[in-house]
Every structure is written in C-alpha cells, then in structure tokens.
Amino acid sequence: MLHSHLTTLNAVSLILNTFKAEGLSSEALLAGSGIVAADLQRADTRITTHQEMQVCTNAVALKRDIGLELGRRMHVSCYGMLGYALLTCATFGDALRLAIRYPALLGTLFELSVEDAGEQVWFVAADYRESPAMAVFNAEFCLVSLKVICDDLLGHPLPLRATRFEHAAPDYRDSYADPFDSPLHFSAKDNAFAFDRHWLDQPLPLADAITHQAMAERCRKQNLEFTGRQAWLGRIRQLLGAQLNAAPGLEGLAQQMKCSPRTLRRHLKDMGSSYQELLDELRFERAKQMLCEDQLPIYRIAETLGFSETASFRHAFVRWSGVAPSQFRPH
C-alpha cells in the first residue's frame, strides 16, 4: 500500500499545465484523486502522495515517457521556500545537503544521498517503496528534476560523468540523452548521476547569507508542520485500515483519535481529504491487493471490506478503477 505523506500541489499543477496545451481537460487527469479545481486556487492546499500519484498514473496512461518531460519543467522555483533557500546557499554542496535534509518539502518518494566515489560523487535516489507500477515514472521524474535543480543552482548545466537507473532500458531510451548528457546504465543498483567532486565547493551565483538564514528557518518550520501532519494522518490510516470490515464512521474514528468529529472533519479538509475519501482509498488499495494475491471469491472480498452487498462493492470498484473486480483480477 502507498505510504500517504503530505505534499504540495506543485507536481499536479505541472501535469495539468503540460497536458493543457494538448487540449486535455483537467477532469480526466484529476479523476479518482479527490482533488477538485477549487483546490488548485489555494496556495496552502496540501494533498497526500496517494492523491498526487493517482494524477501521475492518469498522466502515464496517456503518455508513457511523461516523467522525463515533467522533470524538465520542475525548476528550483517550483519548490517554494525550499527553492529560495537552496538558491541562496553559499555553495553547491551546501544546497545539496539542505535538499537532502528536507525530503518532505522536496516531495520525493526516494531516499536521497550524496555518495563519495573518489574524484567523483554520486547524487543517489534509492529505497523506493511506493507503487511498483509507477517505479519507472517516479525514477525518471525524480532524477530529471534533481538534474534541473542542479543546473538552476549553478546557473549553467552541471556536467555529468555517468547516469544509472534501476529499471531496464525502455523503448524510448533515446529521450534520456537530452537531460542526461552522459553514459547511461540501466538495470543498476539504484538511480543516480555522477559529477566531479570539485563542483561541491562551487560558490552559488545567487548566494545571500541573510536571505538564506530566513528561508532556512521557514523551511524548518514547514517541515515540522508536514511531518506532524503526516504522523497524524498515518495514525488515522492505521486505525481505519484495521477496521475496514466494520468502519467506525466519522464519530467513532474521532473518538479513537481523542478529538471531536468537527475537529477531525476540519483537519481532513485542510489536507484535501475527508473520512469517506480515506475509507474509499484504503478499501480500493486492499481490494486490488486481494484481487491480485488471494483466491477469495468476490463476495468474500466484499464482506472483508465492509460491504453488506456484493453488488455495492462491484459498483464502488467500478467507480474507483473503471473496471469490474472480475476484469481487474489476473486470469
């Protein structure tokens, strides 16, 4: 199941703008995500990575190599306060270390690190634990966007020595040549690119100690907000996920969370969600898992997920996925 962390709408807005030029409506890309047009007008809207990944899944279904294109558009200014904190760092190495410190603000689904390799260093994105079906997209999106950040920080392209990916070479591998002007290696141990060590000491052209101090402090506070909300949301998902066969309802869940139903409803709304959306999300993830891994008849799966009638489960699954449970199940 997806780990549901909080993030901003940056990537979602980027996807919508990318496809807008091709005349595709936002409704098709937002389908199943629980994100509505009004959310896009609020700068402080927070969504879960599950919601973000649903939009990405819709995008990949329309264009398989969209991860590369989206990554090229993720300039450092897309990261809000973190972007300005990075730009105002004293050196390139300082900026990379700051980015790694705040993965929640960077919105990455990987563990980032800078690994020593003698005269070269590797900027590594590893330990991916999200949807396997989206692993290639996320690796492409992550590594291209990291390269774009590096270029933006320096004010010119960072020369690469080599680039490697965990996945096998796709049939559109030629598209990798532009963002990664270096020898490419696929089916590797992780996703990473290498550059000469001396770049870590390179002074940044927009360095400003006073502005950096102010932005870094705001990043620290925002990170506390993100991680605090993530822990709270994680507890809700844990409680609800353990009771899918007899969901407690908003009032029951609020009692378990030791808060009022009104407070629970408000907090969920602030995170762009609701009790029913969370319940549907957890039921859908569990249903997909059971349909793929278990041999239980569909009526038993419906019972396990708390549906009183098999027909109700079928209708819900069609709404979530676009196909009936029997069609989703591998044959």
TrEMBL record:
InterPro entries linked: AraC-type_N, Homeodomain-like_sf, HTH_AraC
Keyword Hydrolase assigned: no
Pfam family, one: HTH_18
Top-level taxon in the UniProt lineage: Bacteria
UniProt GO molecular function: DNA-binding transcription factor activity; transcription cis-regulatory region binding
UniProt KW Hydrolase keyword: no
GO CC terms in record: cytosol
Keyword terms: DNA-binding, Transcription, Transcription regulation
Residue span, HTH araC/xylS-type domain: 234-331
Matching PANTHER family: HTH-TYPE TRANSCRIPTIONAL REGULATOR GADX, HTH-TYPE TRANSCRIPTIONAL REGULATOR VQSM
Protein name, per record: AraC family transcriptional regulator
Organism: Pseudomonas hamedanensis
